Amino acid sequence: MFTGIVEEIGRIASVKRGKNAMQLSISCTTVLSDVHIGDSISVNGVCLTVAQFTEHQFMADVMPETYKATNLHQLRTGSPVNLERAMAANGRFGGHFVSGHVDGTGEIIAVKPMENAIYFDIKIAPAFLKYLMPKGSVTVDGTSLTVFDVTDSGFTISLIPVTQDDSIIGRKHVGDFVNIECDMLAKYIERLFTTDKGNTASGGLTMDTLAASGFLD
C-alpha cells in the first residue's frame, strides 16, 4: 500500500529486456535507507518487489502482465522514475489509498502553464472514466493528484511547484504516456454492486437493500 507521495526521483541504471518482460536496476538513495529483499517499492506508480540491492541501487523484475499494462517498457538507461516505499503504519497519510496496481496508461494531450501551476489534459480509456470525478483523487505515474475536470475522453490535473520539482510529471510532454491508477475505493464500491459481467450482484448490496436499510430516501 502506498500514498502517492513521491519520496525521490531515481534513475534507471540498467535494463535487461526479454520479449515481454524486463529486469530493472534503479539508482536511488532515500528508498534504500531501510530496504530488504522482498520489500515493495512503487516505480512510476507500479508496485515492484526488491529482488536484489546494493548501497546505491535496487533491482526488480517486471513480469509480462505489468510490462503490457504500464509504461515501464518505455524506460531506458538514464530515465528518471518516481519512487515511493510502501507506507509505514506509523507515518502520515499525505495522499490517498494507492495499491500500485496500475489500471492502464493515459496519453498527455495538452500541457498548459498557468500562473504557478501546470495543467495537464490526459486521455484515458473510456472504461476508466466512471472512476473519476472533479475534486476526486487519481494516481499518475505514482503521484497522488486531484482531478480538476473530467471530459468524455479524459481528465485534467494541475501541478503546483513542489510537485513539479519532486516528481517526473512536470517533465512530461504532449504525446507522453503515464501510468494511471484510479481510486481503489470507487472500484471496490462498484464491485460490491456488480458481478464480473456487470450484472447486479446476487446476495450483495443493491439499491433496494440500501433503501430497505434506511440508507436511501
From TrEMBL:
It comes from Sporosarcina soli. It catalyses: 2 6,7-dimethyl-8-(1-D-ribityl)lumazine + H(+) = 5-amino-6-(D-ribitylamino)uracil + riboflavin. The keyword Transferase applies. PANTHER family: RIBOFLAVIN SYNTHASE (PTHR21098:SF12), RIBOFLAVIN SYNTHASE ALPHA CHAIN (PTHR21098). Pathway: Cofactor biosynthesis; riboflavin biosynthesis; riboflavin from 2-hydroxy-3-oxobutyl phosphate and 5-amino-6-(D-ribitylamino)uracil: step 2/2. InterPro entries: ATP_synth_asu-like_sf (IPR023366), Lumazine-bd (IPR001783), Lumazine-bd_dom (IPR026017), Riboflavin_synthase-like_b-brl (IPR017938). Lumazine-binding repeats lie at residues 1-96, 97-193. Keywords: Repeat, Riboflavin biosynthesis, Transferase. Its EC number is 2.5.1.9. Catalyzes the dismutation of two molecules of 6,7-dimethyl-8-ribityllumazine, resulting in the formation of riboflavin and 5-amino-6-(D-ribitylamino)uracil. Gene3D superfamilies: 2.40.30.20. Residues 1-96, 97-193 form the Lumazine-binding domain. This is Riboflavin synthase. It is an enzyme of class 2 (transferase). GO terms for molecular function: riboflavin synthase activity. NCBIfam families: PRK09289.1, PRK13020.1, ribE.
